[in-house]
Specification:
It is built from twelve helices and 43 strands. By secondary structure, the chain is of the alpha+beta class.
Length: 653
Amino acid sequence: MENTYPRPDFTRKNLTWTSLNGPWSFLFDDANTGLTEQWQATGLPTSTAHHKKTTITVPYAFQTPASGINLQEAHEVIWYERSISDIRTPAQRDLGNNHLVLRFGAVDYECSVWVDGRLYAEHRGGQVPFDVDITGAFPPSAAAAGEVRRRVTIRVRDSPTDLTQPRGKQYWGPVPESIFYTPTSGIWQGVWVESVPRVRVRDASGGTVLRGDVGQGRLEGVVAIAGRPALERCTVGVVVSLAGEEVGRQTGEVPVGEDSVEISVDMRVSGDVAGKIRREAGITDGAWQDGVALWAPEHPNLYDIAISLSGEDGTVVDEVHTTIGMRSISWENGDGTFRLNGKPYFQALVLDQGYWPDTGLTPPSPDALKADIEMSKKMGFNGCRKHQKVEDPVFLYWADRLGYLVWDEIGNAYEFSHEYVERFNDEWSQVVKRDRNHPSVVVWTPINESWGYKNLKDNVKERHHIRFLYSLTKSLDPTRPINDNCGWEHIQTDLTTYHDYSDSAQLADICSKMEGGILARKLNGEMFTDPIRHQGDVVDPGSDHKPGAPVICSEFGGVNIAPAKDTEGSSRDWGYTTASDPKDLLARLERLVMAVVKGGHTCGFVYTQLSDIEQEVNGLYSYDRREKVPADKVKAIFDAATEYYYANVAPKA
């Protein structure tokens, strides 16, 4: 993991960085005395009354074998420590041209960062990245004596039992069970130190937004700037290329006193240039529209974007490289379709929860993320619902390039409170900002199955919060549909989604009708009807299903295979329904998939799930990613379902 830059979707020219993955000192602080005893100032002690200092392999959580600790125990407060050096060149350091930034992919849940005892940052939110500018720890005077190393100390608090803390599938009980898994505490995505220009282009999280307007054939957006003195003049240049050919550019001065500039670049090409690009990139007629190459799973064309930032004298002080896919999504078509690039598009998705046997939530390598997408496509899926997890950004990098739709989601909490609302609003905003430039992301899903909202029918505050999340998400990104409360009690949504793990006969009946079928499903053993009702009266009209809105079965299936007679079953072999053998699994899969599609109301589905995870063994692949059934046979089933939709359900052009 050390040789691959952790953010390949946003790289700098002359990139200088060093991975900090690997061994760190580590200590449990069960008595929570570290702050009182000033460990950040003195260094981690060799031992406490309860624990000895040990070594952990970052970025793996202490609960995983890959960490070198592998303890499935509850420890609320943990500490990390290691030394780092200044990776800037002498000129960058002495002239103050570059800053030194410590970057964290994700740390679960509350984190404080010190360098040589000085507090540099505090961050809350276990699923999103954050940066720490530590330039002040390495002044030019200190470097005069030679290489200087500084001690980085990190304190993490992650409550094992606080159900208002967004946690996803991390279980709060002593032993994982059912659909819940081993917790993840502390650093679980990569850590690295990077030399960045003092005045620089911000990434998507920092406000740089890039959107392709297919209808106008333009790149639209905002380039955000960091570190700019208030009166210093600077200029932004944007160059757009495809297959090595420049297709558009723009140069504009950033207004004095502002930290961003709007961009609009015409990307349409014609004549010889268009012909050359299409030949070089192999772009067919179906992937070309009015001089623009379209992005879709079948043809994931990406434009290269170079953004330069120049100072007052015209010298380029920063240059970043990223990509954009030109594709349109529409969902308010009035005919029940989800449309990609103007045409009805059937989403055959898989539920992907992103766990691995030795590393838990952390991918064992960047290649493992690419491999999961390739495994999914091999079985005929054209995308996934990334479930209850904010995946490593490398996943979206490969989804963009391999042509893979992604429903973006966040790990939920399980209890509603004022503190939960503040926590969730903040972290969800960071997720949307981080991922909104990726063409592969096509749906936002903030909430799953009313998790954290136990009384939506009677608690108007709970309903107002989901409505607020809808509006918040729209304000950050109006270009994608929102699935407000996946599969459950909708409050304000663009998609009507439903979950049903019934066997095929019952599922076929449910999917064949809206009233009394799709819109009437079981909740905790009792029937509820969408919209939310109380004693037969509609109490929240905003939750009505909008006639003509896309209807998607966003969870179904979950079939496991009965364990062999000589192995233990029970809770360690959990699934929603059970097949007798691989052949029976294939037969059940075909009946379930066709039950959803032949009902005639559904324009997409999410099958549960891609791979086994711990005791939940209802994946199409085993936990270690071995096929349970031949991939080509699974693909044939999903291909047949997709063909049926286009032939019999989708409106004809």
